[in-house]
Amino acid sequence: MKKRIAILASGSGSNAENIVRYFSGSENIEVALIISNKSNAYVLERARLLKVPALVIPKEEFSDSDLVLAKLRAYQIDFIVLAGFLLHIPDYLIQAYPGAIINIHPALLPRFGGKGMYGDHVHKAVVAAREKESGITVHYVNELYDAGTIIRQEKCRVDPSDTYMDVAHKVHELEYRFYPRIIEDVMKQLWPLENGKS
Ligand code: GRF
To answer: Which residue owns the Cα nearest ligand 1 atom 5?
Structure first.
C-alpha cells in the first residue's frame, strides 16, 4: 500500500504541482490530497487539472481537531507536506503526525524566518540586508513558526545586482529541484522499504 501525502497550500501551488508530478510514477508514495485554507487559491485549480482530490478548510475550521483529523483519516493520510501554507499548524495536528509534517522555507533559517516572513517579504529582506547567499530550508514543523529541526538546506548565490525577483527565481529553482527528493528521503526513513525502491 502506498504511503499517502496531503499537501497543504494557501497560494499558487507551483511546489504542490511539482511534488504531485514527481511522485506520479512512484510505486510507494502518492499525493492523495491537497488542502487549502483559501477557496480562491490557484492550487485548487492545479489539483483539478492534476486530478488530485482537494479540500478547502477555512481558517475557522482548522481549530476543530475532530473535523480536520476525520478528513485526514478519511483520505488515509500518512504524511503532511506544507508548500506555501500560511496558517499556523495547530498542536493537535503535530501530535497526530509526529515527525511526519514538514515545511519548506524560502531562505536559510534561522535567518529571515518567523511570523510575517513569507513569499516576497523574505526575498525583499534578503536583498535589503545585502546577503551574498540565500536558499531553501526544509524542516520539521513544531509549535513555532519556522523553528522545527532543520532537515536540509540548499544554497544559491545572491549577486549585488539581483532584485528580489531574481532571488525568488533562484530560490524557486532550488525548491523544485530538491523539495520532492527531500520529502522522499524523510518518508523512506519513516517507512524503510525492503526492496529500496520508491
Ligand atoms: C514557496 O516559496 C515556499 O518556499 C514558501 O511559499 C512559496 C510557495 O510557492 N513556503 P508556490 O505556491 O508553491 O508557488
So the answer is: 84
Q: Backbone phi, then psi, for 124, in 5-degree steps?
A: -65, -40
Q: What is the dihedral of CA 131, 135, 141, 143, to 10 degrees?
A: 10
Q: Determine which residue's CA is closest to atom 9 belonging to ligand 1.
A: 84
Pocket of ligand 1 (CB under 6 A): 9, 11-16, 83-84, 104-106, 119, 175
What separation in Å is there between the alpha carbon of 192 and the centre of ligand 1?
28
Q: What is the CA(194)–ligand 1 centre distance, in A? A: 33
| Known active-site residue 139 | no
Give one word for 110, left, alpha or beta, with left for phi > 0 and alpha for psi -120 to 50: alpha
pLDDT band at 33; cut points 50, 70, 90 = very high
In angstroms, the CA 43 to CA 38 distance is 9
How many residues can be counted in the chain? 198
Alpha helices in the chain (DSSP H): 14-23, 42-50, 59-62, 65-74, 91-96, 120-128, 164-190
pTM score, whole prediction:
0.95
Give per-residue pLDDT as tens, 98-147.
Answer: 999 999 999 999 999 988 899 999 999 999 999 999 999 999 998 877 78
Whole-number Å distance, alpha carbon 77 to ligand 1 midpoint, is 22
Within 10 angstroms of residue 193's Cβ, the number of other Cβ atoms is 13
